[in-house]
Every structure is written in structure tokens, then in C-alpha cells.
Amino acid sequence: MDEEEVFYLILSLIVIFIAFGTLQTFGSPWSAIAALLSLIAVAFILIINWADFLVFPLFTKTFGITFQPAKDYIITKKQDSILKNVSGLYYATGFVTANLFPYIFKEEQQDESQEEKLVEAPQKWERAVMTLSFPFKFHLMSVASDVQKVRDELEAKRGLQEFQLNREMQSQKQSEIAVTDIRRKINVIQARIDRISSGEKPISSLMYIETTAVGISEKSAIDNLASQIKELQVAFSSLDVQLNRVIGRELYTLFMFNFSMPTTVNELVSQFSKEG
Amino acid sequence: MNAKLLVMLGFLAVSLVFLLVAVTIPLSVLPGYLKIVLLIVSLVFDVMAFSSRYYSYLIIPMLQQRGKNVVLSNEQPYWLSATEDAIIKKDKTGYTATVYINIPLYKSATDMTDEERLEFSRQVSRLAGISREPIRFTTQMYMMNKDSYIQSIRDAISAAENEEAELMQKDADQNSLEIVKGKLSMWRNVLESVSKISSLELSTYATLSATGIKEYEAIAVAQQKAREAMSGIGSVLGVTPSIITGKDMLRFVEPEYLIPFSTISQEMTEKVEEEVI
């Protein structure tokens, strides 16, 4: 949870807490209804906080709301594709996340299997591309992080885990599962510190695939896009990447990246928090 | 104070006002059901205040327009710079120039040994870390533009059709008529075979942006950044990158350049004809 998230949550929840604290002013039986409504509002805020990409498309789909992000472009009511009409032909563009983060970081092993994966990667990539017969773009957005800052953060995280491990070891109800879990976390953090110490640059990256389909009507373009996205998910599955279709506000952000990219790291990081 | 925060505080203030009205006015003046209505309005504004964290750019136009098609912008999202080496976007704070760098990679994993593949993967990993500012590397597969070729074939077909009609009107001899018919059939076959399958091309490029208060300032900074990135790309991959200029850039931005109009419409016609026949 970042500072901004906490700030927005606290300010929004204050209003609801005031409502809870003054329930008696609504009189009977309205105070019970007021309590129920306040709880619903809390639930809404929490859902928006953790899964806005589910709530927002549901809202626009229910009310049939479309957006025009720029001249000639329309974001559909399902919030999963962007349409452009050129002389009667419809071009539908959609995005799929393709983050290789888990591929690298979930493993965190500096063993031979990592090298094997690197040897196989170019061939797997080539095979995936050869199976596809429609236009697509594979984007890798990256920025090198400050080595010292990342190292300091990792060392702080390792310190915290070591403190938790000590506390767990000294506890009378010592849990073997918890100890193993903390040790695994320490190993993962240590592996990252070792990689940075060996000269590897820490990188923040974002990967996604963009594809465009064409059709003689909006529906046919959107249907063609859906089938292209399925094909992409099958083709790139061999690369062990997370392939989720981008829905909601991140679709707008990725679309705007085609015309101007973020110029600072903070700008880039602030755009993506949950879905990818 | 930034606009996003102002939107949030605005909604929050409205929410608080409605709530305070609901809780401070006694029940004898404001009946319970009206208090509930005010509470609902207050909670809606409160949820909107929180949503503005992600959707501040949408909420205001939605409330202003109250229609089913919410227009966020009615302007072209960008324009080509006068020097044709960047695309420019204007926003409230100034201009953003985006530069595209071509990375000529003609390697195939099939022709590589295991050591070469490992080295190539490492080169790609190193490439990702060349810049301290956001840079985007893209591999794009796009449809080869056969629009002008298809148009020249269509012109040849029309010319042959006119020739055939003229000869038929003049009661010309069978021999010359057969020659024109043969020509016509040849061009039709060429058009059919050209548009039967899509020809795809693969290219790799890098994109980066820079901002400036003036357009020329943004372009100059973006070009400077591009030169630094090009030297990094060149040293990591051993290739000579170049800045993409003119209409070639549109292939990376506009869908109709990714899938050229005439090429795809001819292909679709062929497909429909095949299905119908």
C-alpha cells in the first residue's frame, strides 16, 4: 500500500466514520438503513481500491458508456478495446500484459536452469512469432533503477525478515512452516542483493503486447481482436509469461503511450499498480 | 496543488456538506427518509472522491457531458514535427516529443549455436538497462504495404477492360480481342494471388519521450536522449541504430498504417468471394 493509497483511503473513510458515529440522528428505523448504506459504501471503496479494473468496466457496460480518448478513436463500453473507423473499415486494438517478472524473480535461482532458459528463449520467441499471422507489437518498457537505492531497500527488507525470524525462533509456539517461509524470503532477497553486487543492474520493466484487428463492422473487428488475443496467449504461453487482457483505465494509459511515453520513473510507476 | 487532488478534495467537501446537513438538522424538520436520501448523495460523492485517485481524467467529463459517449478529447492525439523526426503531443504543462529509433536486427535463433543464443539473451537483458529514463523497446509485426502495387494492378485491369470494350465496339478481329482478354485474365490472376495472403514484416525499434515548455525544446531534448540511447543500443547489440523519420513513424502509431487499407480490403474481398463461391 503506497502513501497516496493510504491518503485517499483515510480521507474517504472519514466521511463514512462520521456517518457511523451519527447514526442515531437518523431516527428509527432509518438508522439501520443508514448503517447498511455506509457499509455498502465501505465495500465499494475497498473493491475500487483492489479491483477497479472489474468495477469500472462493469459500470460502463451496464450504462453503455463509451469514451473518446482522441479524435477518431473510441474506447468500447467493455473497456477492453479501442476502435478506429477509417473509410468504413473498423480497426480494433487491444492489449495483453506479458510481464516476464515472475519468470525472473519467482525463481531467484542462480543455477543452471536459469542459463538453460536464456538459451531457449530466442528459439521460443521465434517459434511463437512464426505461428502468428496477424500484426502485433511486443513492448518492453524499461528503466534502470538507482543501484544504491535498490540495494538499501533490499537490505532494509532483509533486516525486517531477519528480525521476524528471530522473533519466531524465540517464540514458545514456534511454527516450522512460518520459519521456513521467512527463510525462503530471506534467501530470495539475498539472491537479489548478490545479483546487484555481481554487477547486474536493477531494472524496473513493464511488458505488454498490443494487437490490432480489422473488420467491416465494429462487432466483427472486436470479435477478430478477441480471437487474435487468444492466439497470442497460446503462442506466448511457452515463454512462461503472465498473459492477461488489459481492461479498464490501463487500456487508456497504454493507448496514450503510443503518442507519448512517461518521461520519469515515478510517472511510469504511478500508472500501474494492480492489474499487470 | 495538482488537479487530481483538487478533484478529490472537491468531491469530499460536497460529500461532507450533504452528510452534515443530514445529521445536524433535527428529525422534526427533516424526516428520516429525506436524511437517507442526503446520506446516499453524500456516500456517492465520497465514493467518487476515492475513485478520482484513478479516474480523475474521466469523472469531470462524465459529469459535464452526462451522455453515453464521453468525449475526453476531440483533437488529434499528436502531430508530426516540422523536422519530421518526432511526433508532438501538447498537454496542459507543455509539449512532449516522442522519437522512434530503428534497431536493425537481422538475426535468427535457428542459425545460432547455444552459446550465441545465450549471448543474444544476455545482450537483450543488458539492452533493457541502458537508460535511466523510461525507454520502450518494441518488436512489431506489421502487414506489408501493398496498397500502391494493388492500385497499379487495378489500374492495369481497368485499362485492359477499356481496351476490350473499345475493340468490341469496333468489331475488331478475334486475334487482338483474345490478346486483350489474355492480358485481362493475367492481371486478375496477379491481383488474386497478391491479395490471397498477407505478407508480414518484422521490425524492432525503441521509443522515448521528452518534455519541454516549447515544441522545439521538447524535440531537442528528445533528440539528445535518442542519441544517447542509440550509442547504448549500438554498443550492446553491435548494430547501427537510426532515427526514424517521416511517414515511416506512422506505422508505429496508426492502425491503418499497421494494416494498410487497400491491402486488407482487397484481402477481405477475396476472402468473402471465396466463402460465397
Short overview:
The complex is a heterodimer of chains A (276) and B (277). In chain A, 57% of the residues lie in helices and 15% in strands. Chain A is built from 9 helices and 6 strands; from the N terminus they run ααββββααβααβααα.
Explain what the structure shows.
The complex is a heterodimer of chains A (276) and B (277). Chain A has three domains: 1-65; 66-145 and 202-276, no CATH class; 147-197. Chain A has helices at 3-21, 30-63, 101-105, 112-130, 147-170, 176-197, 218-235, 249-257, 265-271, and strands at residues 66-68, 73-75, 82-86, 89-97, 136-144, 203-215. Chain A is built from nine helices and six strands. Chain A has a five-stranded antiparallel sheet. In chain A, strand 2 (73-75) and strand 3 form a beta hairpin. Chain A is an alpha+beta fold and 276 residues long. Mean pLDDT of chain A is 84; it is low at 101-108. Chain B is an alpha+beta fold. Chain B has three domains: 3-65; 79-145 and 198-276, no CATH class; 147-194. In chain B, strands 2, 3, 4, 5, 6 and 7 form a six-stranded antiparallel sheet that branches. In chain B, strand 2 (79-80) and strand 3 form a beta hairpin. Chain B is extended and about 105 Å long. The N and C termini of chain B lie far apart (65 Å). In chain B, 31% of the residues are buried. Classes of the chains: A alpha+beta (276), B alpha+beta (277). At the A-B interface, helix 1, helix 2, strand 1, strand 4 and helix 4 of A face helix 1, helix 2, strand 1, helix 3 and strand 5 of B.
